[in-house]
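Data availability excerpt. The first of two example chains:
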Amino acid sequence: MIREPTLARALRMRDSTLLVIGSMIGTGIFLTTSLVAQELPSPWLILTAWIIGGIFAIAGALTFAELGAMFPSAGGHYVYIRQTFGPLWGFLDGWLSFVVAFPCSIAFMAVGLAQYTGSLVPLFSESNILARIPMPWGELSVNACQLAAVTTVLSLTAVNCLALRIGRKIHNSITFLKLLCLLALPVAGICSGHGAWAHMATSSPLPLSWKLLPSLGAALIGISFAYLGWDASTYMAAETKQPLRTLPRSLALGTSIVVLLYLLFNFFLLYALPLSTIATSSNVARDAAIATLGPTAATVITCVIILCILGAMDATIIAGPRICYAMARDRLFFRRLGTVNPKARVPRAAMITQGIWSSVVIMTGTFEGILLNSVFAILLLSVIAALAVFVLRHKQPERQRPYRTWGYPFVPLLYCAGSVAILLNALAQHPMQSAASLIAVTIGVAVYGVMTCKNLNPKD
């Protein structure tokens, strides 16, 4: 009897930690502070918002560390939700991840990457319209920026389809360079002496009141996007060596490193530019680099941003397919997506499917809509998965837990409460965009019913 090929356990502690770091550091840190400055009237409030977002991320990482050690399987929070709440809820989690969360995140980063590339090479500019295609709902314009974004997504997908070993080495190299750049840039800018610590001072007492809460919530939407990816290594649990030990450590260490780097980078931005300039800047990282390091830094910072986006997109492309792979292995999705290529030892069918769907999102979605849909969906799924810690502690108190969440129940409760507050604020301020994720849940229920009734994945 020929044994079916399975995923290989090849990821070490360093690989898993770099996967977390690489997944987190993307466009968010370079663009978000300008949006936050539009909501919050003080440099110290801005730093406080980034600290709050970092605390939420660390709390989430510590919470998922317990779940990851309990269920060291491919699929991340899909596995935790299915094990805790049943196959329907597990399917809805995987469905949202498949149709909204991961494709929208990949598309957002791919479009951002193409836009920054277009600033260096005008050929890839959005203004370069390549075709106009009539559609039932109107005309669909295809520009060079979209084409470049799709090409990048499909190219990275193809590379990672070759073998986990190849994809791992490429991702580790990119992430290591990202870390060096993100550390060197703010240190060089602060040491240049061309900024002013006076920018950190407030001209009037901080207007602390309950009226600030909606603004803080709005700021945390973008900050939450910048911190997304702290759970990346959990999706690769089936390919991790010594997962009971590696997963908790990689989550905690990777997330903590990124939180410290983000705080350092924001200190640099606030040192380099006055708050009014930050709030109106379309590219605050570039403007800060120019102000402290000179005009030639504009090209340097653009290249750094491109590198960071490329690494984050690569990490997302690697992790995402493991969810629909796990669903298919559990007979909750199309069986073909649960196969492993015998030579590459990666789920090629799932990776190719994700690449194609992400390309469709790029060609039909809007930049802002992609961001809001992806943040809302990912936070919603993460909260549901985090609740599994409480449920399992109650229902299965005797189950082996190689790692127990530090600070339980306060740490997971803090993460859940903070994330729910951000979700409610996003729903209140952007009801149409956020509702798209809720519509996707409704469609998912229908798809689940069709698949189970039609028995599209019959058991052997």
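And the second chain:
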Amino acid sequence: MLNYLFRRFLYMAPILVGVNLLTFVLFFFVHTPDSMARSVLGDRYADPAAIEAWKREHGYDLPRLWNAQAHGLERVTRTIFWQKCMPLLWLDFGRSDFDHHSIGEAIRTRMGPSLHVTVPMFLLSFVVTTVTALWVAYRRGGIADRVVLVLCVAFMSVSPLFYIIGGQYLFARVLRWCPFSGYAPGLDGWRFVVLPVAIGVLAGFGQQVRFNRTVMLEETQKDYVRTARAKGVSEPVVLLRHILRNALIPILTSVVVTIPFLVMGNLLLENFFGIPGLGSYVLDAIQRQDFAVVRAVVYLGTLLYMAGLLMVDLAYTWADPRVRLG
């Protein structure tokens, strides 16, 4: 196990460096510091003197990769790449281009509200969609299966904005079961997150149930299922101990894409419900054209996705004992 983890960390290192280099090229070669200054200042005020002043203020006046005017190691260290992108490798996110606040501190502060919404939504959605898919797979071809499939298609055909706006109007404004928007930390904040969590589960219900149902139907046709039934094994045991456990591998693979969003938050939900999480933080940074925050979030998302892949590989060994980490 330790050898496997060590090799995986070695594989992750060049990928993270490559993402960092790609981000640097996109932000400082494709979208140059001069373009950044013009975007922030506006065409009316973006004269050459103002552009140079903005670049000096934010440290974008340095050479990008090689400083020929410096001496020794400063030829490398006194560059935009070293000062703006290299610190990301050791999780030093720097400061915002907009108001110079610490990006790392903002991420740590806003991570809690995001997790307060996304973790219950993730767990509830996983349980509800898996149980529903298992049930309709057992009832394949029956009325229940057809009704659930129609509901899944209906849920997939509706925009998430409809669920958000309709949920706010019905449950917050008309029925007054929960606040319209806002957030409170701790256990007292449950009333602020119950509606976003329910909407998040409902919005992803159709797609996930259809995928899980397809996986479980494929497992029901396997020889080991027919053998178990022929030996007189009860249907609940066949479903839970055989079909579900073997179907978890593709299900866990599909779940990994949602792991970064557990920390990064949900842009639409946090924006509409006024939750001060990372999702609203990223959206505000894009609107303000805060390039430092966007670079940091891109790198953080890559790191979280790779960590999710590692956790899923470890979960494979629990779901299927035949899988060995070699």
